[in-house]
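Sanity check

After download, print the first record. It should look like this:
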Amino acid sequence: MPRITPLPLQDVRYEPLEPELAPDVPPDARTARRERASIVHLSLNPDGLYEARALAERTPVYAIHNAPEPGALTLPGPDGRPLHFELTTRGGVDAFAATLPLPPAQQAAVAATLAQGDVLIRDELAQLALLWSRAEGGAPLPSRLVLSGHGYSAALVGEDNGRLPWELLASLAHALPRAAAQIQDVHLAGCNTAGPHALGVLREAFPQLRSLWAYAGTAPGAVSGAATHQLRWERATREGGEPTREAAAHTRLGESVAVWTAAHGYDDGRAPEPLSQVRERVQLLSVVLEWADGGGLEVPDPQRGPLRDFYDALSALLRHPELPAAERPALEAQRDRALRLLYFEARVTGAFARTHAQALQQGYASLGLAAPDFAHLSRRDALWEVDRFCEAAAARQPLPEPARALLPLLVRGLRNLEPGFVPDAWL
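Expected structure tokens:
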């Protein structure tokens, strides 16, 4: 049977434990070795469990995935009765942190980290904190960590789930430094996760980091290659081994693999490209973004076509080690917009229609209009419908409150694609 342990773990002590009262029992050497050879697999997508199960055929795996109730966590209490934590509130976050076997200052640091994340990432991050908190009392932890989800240079995101920026993971590592010091090999199973930004944040977060496996371009999905890549990474990193790009040779999207090791540095299989050349490629393709934004370019497949070419070129620019920090915010804003346009018809319109169904019906009805089915509209047709609503709203004074409430959802959300109105969870 696969040795897979879904978290929350059943053997963690949940009552507050002062460090000076912790029993000074050295861990069994065999148990410690087995624990360090294990893997923590944190997935933001449902199919990540397929990856965890594949790894569990080789080595013990602690699987962290979306809780049954997103943004909440239920744990067994010291008396056997369940403890339920609503992590969507600061009170729930603080209550959860207070159960960890940590001194008050560290409990507060963990709570502050969870509160920084969006509400949908907090249950996964809390499960990781639950496991890592054991190390602060001297327990051994798995030295290998897999983070799986949809990715880009700044974060991992999940389907209808939260967003895990590298800085948020680093914040938890800083709150639990003895745990962070045990992490030696990290696998980022997501598109465009390679490059100096992620590497710099993770090297600082995990001071004993020996290797990082990531993707300079498109990464395979769970069934279409991710599990194969993770199995090869597991074999390469076993007992202190060092991964190389060659481990992914002759696999689907193996050419996208980028590896950094403390011994040999960064290798993405490409000759270093001058920054000016990457900038020029982005500049040439930038007209595609404007074309797609205005509805003039259809995107039948988010993984292929001119807009995907622009997005990949922009991602390469953001990964470039010589890119000045001052240029990143504007380029990241372009990346966010391109990503939302790539998935506009495939995911964004459907999520928009589901999330705001009542507001759409009430807002349009208040102006005497029938609400369109945004879930099945192209970018061009959606923009036309937004303009139609805006014109009707401008001609109606005073503007009914349902129409007033709907306007920013249509304009800032569906038309402008602002991240605050079109969250990463929709992508």
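If your output differs, re-run the checksum step. Summary of this record's structure: The chain has a mean pLDDT of 91.
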